[in-house]
Design a protein that fits this description.
The protein is α+β, with helices and mostly antiparallel strands and 69 residues long. It has 1 helix and 4 strands; from the N terminus they run ββββα. InterPro entries: UCP037692.
Length: 69
């Protein structure tokens, strides 16, 4: 499970979609960009292939809840 999920707008103009997010998973900090298309671009270290689908699904759910609700 991911913890300490945080996000902020990528642009000062809040009408332009795009967000920067950070979170921890198994004690490792990850950072990425969430684009309006739902594409996730990792900044620095990315999660292992075996965990990536699980993590991406959780990020999509969190972004839907926080941004689009």
């Amino acid at each position: 499970m991911i913890s300490h999920f945080q996000f902020k707008n990528m642009y000062d103009n809040k009408q332009l979609p795009g967000w920067v997010f950070t979170f921890f998973f198994k004690g490792v900090r990850y950072e990425g960009n969430y684009h309006k298309t739902g594409e996730i671009e990792w900044i620095g270290q990315s999660p292992s292939e075996e965990n990536q689908d699980f993590i991406k699904k959780q990020i999509h759910e969190l972004m839907l809840f926080h941004v689009y609700e």
